[in-house]
Amino acid sequence: MALEELTYGATRNALQGAELLFILFLRFMIILFRPDIVDRENRVQPPPTSELLARYDFVVIGGGSAGAVIANRLSENSNWTILLLEAGDDESFVSEAPLTFPTLQLSNMDWQFKTEPSLNYCLAMKDKRCNWPRGKVLGGSSVLNAMLYVRGNKRDYDQWSELGNEGWDYESVLPYFKKSEDNRIAELDGSPYHGKGGPLTVENFRHRSPITEYFLQAGRDLGYETVDINGAQQTGFTYSPGTLRDGLRLSTAKAFLRPCSSRKNLHIATNSFVEEIMIGETSKTAYGVKFRRGLRRYSVYANCEVIASAGAIQTPQLLMLSGVGPADHLLKVGIPVIQDLPGVGQNLQDHVAMGGLSYLIDAPKHEAHESHDFSFVLPKLMTLNTVLQFVRNETGPLYLVPECEAMAFVNTKLNDESMHDFPDVQLFLSSAADNADGGLFGIHGCGLCEEFYAGLYDDILYQDSYAAVPLVLRPKSRGYIKLRNSDPKYQPIIVPNYFDDPRDLEVLVEAAKFVDRLSLTPTMRSINARPNGNVIRECAAHEFRSDDYWRCQARHYTMTIYHPTGTCKMGPVTDSMAVVDAKLQVHGITGLRVIDASIMPNIVTGNTNAPTIMIAEKGADMIKEAWRHYAGGPMNRRSTSKLQSPLDWHVNEQREEIIRQTRSSLQKITELFETDLPVLNEIRDNEDYDYD
């Protein structure tokens, strides 16, 4: 047995080396044959630090799924200056090929966060810590994700509104989904739920494994229709729609930043890590940020607003580093409290999922397809022909994401039957189980221990299979983000508290039973679908596939679907745990908004990228409305003032606070009179005015 284990391990290790060579070869071939992917003319060209200004009208922190949208929309006003600060660099060429999605995790485009060790979940992961990938790159996590375009359920947004967030009901947010969208799925043309002509192209994946048809038919066997999950009805099965253009990944950087990066009033600074938002201790007004670029630190000032779009992990971290958050926690780590907001970093939600639901199949042999491509087996596709198909014919398996070729939104017996079309489980239906890629997704992406993977999959390595990954759509458990210390360089403490509410675990148990029922449908039995018979060693005390076994499996093979939300909760001032109001303004702080997934009061019933883009579209409109009478600050008057490069943080913050307060007051007077008074403009826009 030891010899067999050694052989299996050697096979997997050899494949991992081949994967690296395959990716390098793919990159080389893209450079040679796919100028549309290289796209040198349109990629963002960040200005050197010497070209950055000392003051902008708006400073946006984070160039991800939300920040890219905000920078685009605000810079549509040519009188305003915008600085977008992104800690990472531009996305790689290889990331645009959908199949490469798992290889992007733990790359230099990933912050590589991990949850704190737990005895309740992630038990099969290295050090009992789940990997939490987050994008450190222009486009943020839209560069790392599986490209799925899912909006959530109508009730999600109606419930947000019922919590006191006026203007966030479904009818109010639908126009913002449609504003971004350029739907290219033919059968959805003319739908009142979809948009045309927006920056964000939505397509079906160009390549599809034949087994995907079986998934949808199996759903029909169980009474579930094939539906547009972003339309009138969410419950049902579907081919996965994606944020794709011509079959390639469409990140928000590609969709929103490249088209506007040449605007004179927009500076996009990459490799710029924000360490603090500058907030006046007395005025409680945000007036700029401190950031590090290269070996130097800089301060940059905002005439109007600072917008935090760093995501559900780093936005609360940044607020706390800046003195906004739970007072007791800030004092404990040595940070002076500017605004006591207990909800910062709390209310962390994620769609917890269960891995390991794997089924072997016998691929059919008939004229419609070759048996070797019926499901996804990685070694069979790592060939010269696969690369040539991609770079020359723009076809082939590099255009698919096997982990989620189809999706389903279904109901378990635990769901409230009175809530029509409000499913409690989402299934990702994969044309490959974990055995099919030698651990690329499970070991590399999720962080599974080698021994755990080997026990489940080594003796069925690279056999035809499929998998289903169920996730809890409306988890009851809540986690938190806290600072490790006062140093911005240290990653925060991430505690998701999966299964803290036992109902979440029971939903996964019922979801596993549903997946088993799916395997027993006539459609799946026609390809001899059968469960992987290998038992999880740590769960062997329980009857195989019993409720207790499923509970044990969920605690061991715990998965994130990369949907952290809720850590800067939106809510009225009467909600003690709310961080921002319905205009996304931070409670108690002037000139500071949070616009990203962290503002969700409750996580949406589906993937979070499309809702985050919607939030950014709506947030940008709120800013435009708030500053509709603002004609632009002095930097738009051909000022030559450039960003200084101090070696420390010493700045005249009192003077900056006075300037910021004065300009804010003048803006309010201008809005009151609903006109631009010449004398006010002269004072407001005169950079040399004696404020002292």
UniProtKB/TrEMBL annotation:
Residues 135-158, 311-325 form the Glucose-methanol-choline oxidoreductase N-terminal domain. InterPro entries: FAD/NAD-bd_sf, GMC_OxRdtase, GMC_OxRdtase_N, GMC_OxRtase_C. Transmembrane segments: none annotated. It comes from the Eukaryota. Its cofactor is FAD. The keyword Chloroplast does not apply. FAD binds at V137, V274. Keywords: FAD, Flavoprotein. PROSITE patterns: GMC_OXRED_1, GMC_OXRED_2. Belongs to the GMC oxidoreductase family. PANTHER family: GLUCOSE-METHANOL-CHOLINE GMC OXIDOREDUCTASE, GLUCOSE-METHANOL-CHOLINE OXIDOREDUCTASE N-TERMINAL DOMAIN-CONTAINING PROTEIN. This is Glucose-methanol-choline oxidoreductase N-terminal domain-containing protein. It comes from Trichogramma kaykai. The lineage of its organism: Eukaryota, Metazoa, Ecdysozoa, Arthropoda, Hexapoda.
